[in-house]
Amino acid sequence: MTAQHFSEEIEQQIDRLLKEMTIQEKLGQMNQLSADNMEVNYNLIRRGMAGSVLSITDPAVANKAQQIAMEESRMGIPIIIGRDVIHGFKTIFPIPLGQAASFDPDIVEEAARAAAVEASEVGIRWTFAPMVDITRDPRWGRVAESPGEDPFLASRMAVAMVKGFQGKDLSNPTSLAASAKHFAGYGAAEGGRDYNSTYIPERQMRNLYLKPFEAAVKEAGLATIMSAFHANDGIPATGDKHLLKSILREEWGFDGFVVSDWASVDEMVVHGYSQNRSQAANQAIEAGIDMEMVSGTFVEHGEKLVRQGSLSMEDLNNAVRNILRVKFRLGLFENPYVEEDRDSKFYHTEHLALAKKAAEESFVLLKNQEETLPLKNIKTLAVFGPLSDAPHEQLGTWVFDGEKDYTITPLDALKTMYGEEVEILHHPVLKFSRDKDTTSFVKMRKLAAAADAIVVFLGEESILSGEAHSLSNLRLQGAQTKMLKELAALNKPLVSVFLAGRPLEIEKEVELSDAVIYAWHPGTMGGPAIADVLFGKSGPSGKLPMTFPKNVGQIPIYYSHENTGRPATDNEMLIDEIPVEASQTSLGNRSFYLDSGHEPLFPFGYGLTYTTFEYGRIELLEDVLQRDGILKVGVTLKNTGKAMATEVVQLYTRDLYASVIRPVKELKDFKRITLGPGEQTVVHFELNIRSLAFWNRDMEEVVEPGEYELWLGGSSDTTEKVSFQVK
Ligand code: BGC
Prior knowledge:
Layout: H1 8-20, H2 23-29, E1 31-34, H3 38-46, E2 52-54, H4 59-72, E3 80-83, H5 96-101, H6 105-120, E4 126-127, H7 151-166, E5 179-183, H8 202-209, H9 211-220, E6 224-227, E7 231-232, E8 235-236, H10 241-251, E9 257-259, H11 267-271, H12 277-287, E10 292-293, H13 297-308, H14 313-329, H15 349-362, E11 364-368, E12 380-384, H16 410-418, E13 423-427, H17 441-449, E14 453-459, H18 480-488, E15 494-499, H19 507-512, E16 515-518, H20 526-534, E17 613-620, E18 624-625, E19 630-639, E20 645-655, E21 666-675, E22 680-688, E23 694-695, E24 701-702, E25 706-713, E26 721-726
Parallel strand pairs: 1-2, 1-10, 2-3, 3-4, 5-6, 6-9, 12-13, 12-14, 14-15, 15-16, 18-26
Antiparallel strand pairs: 7-8, 11-16, 17-19, 19-22, 20-21, 20-25, 23-24, 25-26
Beta-D-glucopyranose is lined by residues 84, 128, 181, 261-262, 467.
């Protein structure tokens, strides 16, 4: 249980502090400094002008800052030290999008716990994670940090990460306050260009983008929230009172604090929302921002605004109260210092083992023609590609503390783990993913000629995804596709392993390869995880957390769309089949692209394993249910292949008609099931009918009576379904 309980005692302590604090000291608590110049910071902390410092990573510095706050500032209030610990601190886990592909909240929670244990060792007690922006546009570089396109999966990931970071009790010195971000709707940035405007109507905001935040608040006792950079329908998220007060505080009862994003208060001036920094401060505080990240407008203008009467003392007190509440819950007043000689858990064996397992579970097998994988009967293996031995590039975005010297690359791992059984020939061919120089192709062909099979590591370097790293072209960079074409022409078993921060456009590359694994940016232990999966010591079990488009022009494309009145039928005539001078209506009037149809390359939830699974008929216990009922449903799952493997069984529903149109499919639950060859089991689900609720025409969250469909299967394009009714 991680929900943070209301404590009368804490509130009384806060009251006492608030009574004694000057306006400027209150504004100081609402001010977050960056750690760039600690000498200046020490002075500000001493004067009560800072409530938090971001990115201190030296325990001695953390303790010195804390000692000044506790002993030399008038109020003796501890600071809270924050940092972007996004997918690991020293031990780097797969990027969050990869973690989402595991569909395994348990391992995601464990990974966040390990990250918290490592980060807290240097005095960090607050992380700016989880990022839970739902996103349906792989051009946006920040998809790497996100849980993908689906609100249910994102909610499970959000809850798991918050629980992992915050631990069972926030006051434990290894617990970090989590910060769900970026509130809200940032993932819908127009055109996938970072920081861009969004146009999300209230209903979609609530049915989709707010879901993981709400789950983190209500199910995991989330300690803090970060407001987003962008503006939705003309209102910057950092000045959006409706989101920050009406929904977050009043509807959800959130009692932690809200931090702005980096200078997002000041940036309201650039947006053209605030006339100047003073008005930006006023608007942000009034909207419900409690702490300002780095732009300093609160301390600069707050006192004047209060004295003028344009900012209420009540708003100020509430903000400080929210911040102090989290500091009390973290135990910072009693225990502000970090133990400088604590036994180090950096790269602890257990964390490395966990990072390897998390990476294995994140891999998605996209193709496996004629059981090319796992590799067998091979004497000589050729290993190529710019990401085969690139320790920095497999770590992914948002890695400030994990060191590449601790990274084990696929090449390292293949040599040390399988080098005795198999001769490994290697050349990177291209020096980095954008490299266009094909000089090494000659060498590559020579090595390939001597090999029984080829594994090639393609994709994108870490720097190509993440914040502000949007792309308009998702094809492989540099000469990578050329390289693959040359290798495919050799007619040897060819395995492509993609390391990337986003779904790339890989239709051609999939065609050229016999087998394809999508490994995301897999982190410190990516190499050993890949080696074991290639040789079948473990099997891939990941499923796609985002739809893979055939090409950029299909974006946005996602499984949970609404039906048009004229959906595509699968019989559409595509561009090369159209007769010359065809008449206007002869193609039919349907919703699809003439040149790429209506299907993506791979749908959400898709992923193969080293075995085959057969689903039996779906058994529904009752098919008429009350709105507060529980639907019990099961399906027989049989492993019909030769390997032990894990299947992610996914439950989808559709509300066939409603007061507002509902998506054609919505994920409502999933389970990871491991079965040996020939083994079978009945997989049971209990679906609370309340989870079918949505925001209706009158903007109320309700389950509407009517007819529904339910699917159980191994991907969002599964077709086996049953019907039920809700009374
Ligand atoms: C990002 C946040 C991050 C913050 C602090 C911003 O640029 O948008 O996600 O937490 O910087 O580093």
